[in-house]
Amino acid sequence: MQKVVNVKEDKSKLFKYLLKFAKPYTKQLLMALFFVIISTLLSLLNPYLVKIAIDDYISGDVIPMVEVKTSEDALNVGGRYFKRTTELKEVPENAKNFTIETHENERYLVEDGKRIEVIDNDVYKDYRQKDISAVTKIGLYYLIAVFANFLATWIFNFTLGKSGASIIYDIRKLTFNHVLEQNHTFFNNMPVGRLMTRVTSDTQTLSQFYSNVLISFIADFGVIVGIMVLMLKLNYKLALMCFTMIPVIVAISVVFRNIQFRIFRAARTKLSIINTVLNEYLSGMSIIRIFGKERKMEQKFDDRNKDYLDTILKQVKNHAFFRPTIEIIRSLGEAFLIYYGGGQVIKSKIEFGTLFLFITYLKQFFRPIMEITERYNIMQLAFASVEKIIKLLETDTKIRPLPEYAKENIEAEEGSIEFRDVRFSYIPGEEVLKGINFKVKKGESVAFVGATGAGKSSIMSLLARFYDIDSGNIFVDGIDIRTMDTDELRRRLGFVLQDVFLFSGDIKYNITLGEKFNDEAIEAASKRVRADDFVKHLSEGYNTPVQERGSTLSTGQRQLLSFARTILRDPEILILDEATASIDTETEILIQEGLKELMKNRTTIAIAHRLSTISDMDRIYVMNKGEIVEVGNHEELMEKRGYYYRLYQLQLDKKN
Fold first, then answer.
1. How many CB atoms lie under 10 A from the CB of residue 272?
2. Backbone phi, then psi, for 245, in 5-degree steps?
3. With a threshold of 0.85, does the pTM exceed it?
4. Given this model, what pLDDT does residue 588 score?
5. CA dist list (Å): 54 to 51, 110, 249, 341, 618
6. Residue 246's CB: how many other CB atoms inside 10 A?
């Protein structure tokens, strides 16, 4: 039974799922977080070093000085000694303030705005030498911080990128394995293009989230908080004036977020539709060309493509409005800061380095805001994609062993099959099989015949437990198949289908399907069904490349490879589902001898389209509208002159 958990537009739940996928890589992500914090601190440190260099050393002439008695590290002007107030642990009370002023290449000692004495150039140079040394040291610290930031950023990017790629690998593997476990009803109801979108496009979208958003979002938030703290510490009045823009930014961001999420979710749905349509059209290209529907299909695809484009353009317009709006707010903030802060510098209420640091931090303050909006776009895409993936992962149609049916097991020999009052419907209320009963002993060969839709192929699907029956029992070796592991059950069965699917690879791979068999076993299996006759004439024999779907091989050659694929595994029970329906008469004659050899001492069930191919079967079951209407061998059924006789005569008349 299909269980679908309804996933509401609950972003917190979606985010929890994203974190759940990342949980196995917590250590790596914490390591990335540590280094991004280091990088963030270093990026905030460098402007602060520049501020110190400007205020404490480069602009040393404007720092107030007081007269002192000692000559150590002091400026000697006419036998009087002066030191900056910033260099003193304690400034004497009522001490007069002096500064240095440069005028026409001469430097003067200034008191109360008046030049009182010329400072000797050599004395001035010796005095400023300590400032040059300090600036040099700060420059060295700046370079060290730059290289340390580079190293921290590199480690962060590498660790995060590796973790993100590993997480996506796990999600893609989880999604694909989940799809493989579903029953046939799931695939009947789920378009292939949609599944491809989930496993490829949606998982790739999540890759951007883990690589560019998860930790970087925290780093950006840390930069914003760090800048706010530093601004408040430097000058809380100036900082509070800058922070008045935050409510406006938050309001705009909330509106932008809500609009973008709806657009992104619609875009993912429409992209999935495009993939579904594209897969359908490419798969049916021969039919499209035969009936001359290229232009019509082109128009239909263009309509869906245009619909997707319109949705993307809405996203682009929304984003194009948001980014310049934030930029305008930032520019207004800078303009106000220059106007107000510049006035404070002129009035000597704040230092120039402080104003420089505020302007620099304001730019850094808005940069993560801009990046957060960029990353928010990725986050919305991730939410839209993970919502689709969750719906897929929470759709559970997997067929599992049901131990409660073990009590219904019966005694039977190995290789036997029994259907006991089996009823089945693809759609509830519309039975396809109605009380089917039959037994097949080990080594017997039986066939099912009937008109299209009689239920023949459904019996084969139920025997392999591609679907679960509505009621009744199916026994293999006396065991109710509902109690068996599906892999164990299907290892006992060998299927040869009418429609043969070949994978990209070579002839050998399409016979072994990646399992380990030696070359002798592969060639022996091929010879038994006469596949070796055409394989050895191919350019590279068993190593000959096979194009997608085996397009370079004939229908008969593909079917012979299917026979070899089945014989190689030596199954207990052989199931032939109209296996020779697509093979020409000459090829069919070639494989009849191989089939007889294969069927020896093996239970065989065949679904036959050509009644002439089953005349040697031990028993034939004739089906009509989901019921077995006749049973017997060929001669017995012909003598009855019933349904089978009429089918046989009909085919004979068509042949004639």
1. 21
2. -80, -20
3. no
4. 63
5. 5, 21, 32, 16, 102
6. 14
